[in-house]
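Q: Sequence in, structure out?
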Amino acid sequence: MIRHLVTDRRRFGLDAAELLRRVAAGSARVDVIQVRERDLDDRALVRLVRDMLDAVRGAGTRVLVNDRVDVAIAAGAGGVHLRADSAAASRVRAIAPPAFMIGRSVHSIAEVDEAVRDGGCDYLLFGTVFPSAGKYEGHVAGIDALAAVCRRSPVPIVAIGGMNEERAREAAAAGAAGVAGVGMFM
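A: Exactly. Output:
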């Protein structure tokens, strides 16, 4: 099962150095780190991603950048995670280096169908599956919706939202290829 850590240093009141320390310490437990630090300017985000790559070097962990293809390429990251309303993955694939991983957030079967039609995605991140401390508003899809999306999609589905070890097992039983989270790994 793919384990996907999503960073959010502000949620935990961390500075960049403490975020890097925690990520490095936990990198052996995750396959992917999605750097989601929306408040940083371009220069600071590139620096953080490069520092993150250094911090996990040798762990076999892939570092992705949230919705910033330009930063991901400039920093030498392993890929990008696109929001549901972001650029088409096929367009990103056309400019991306070889072996660049591309994921996209999806929240419904219609969004799954659209992403599959467009092509270019290596995985789809579906949620919010369970109530989550990180998503204060919005719809909670539930485990049945996750199962339906997993049955529908030829692209691997990674479940996000309110994950812990027990819920990760439920997500796997529903067909998810992996789980993602902020709190679960931080």
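The CA atoms of residues 11 and 134 lie 8 Å apart.
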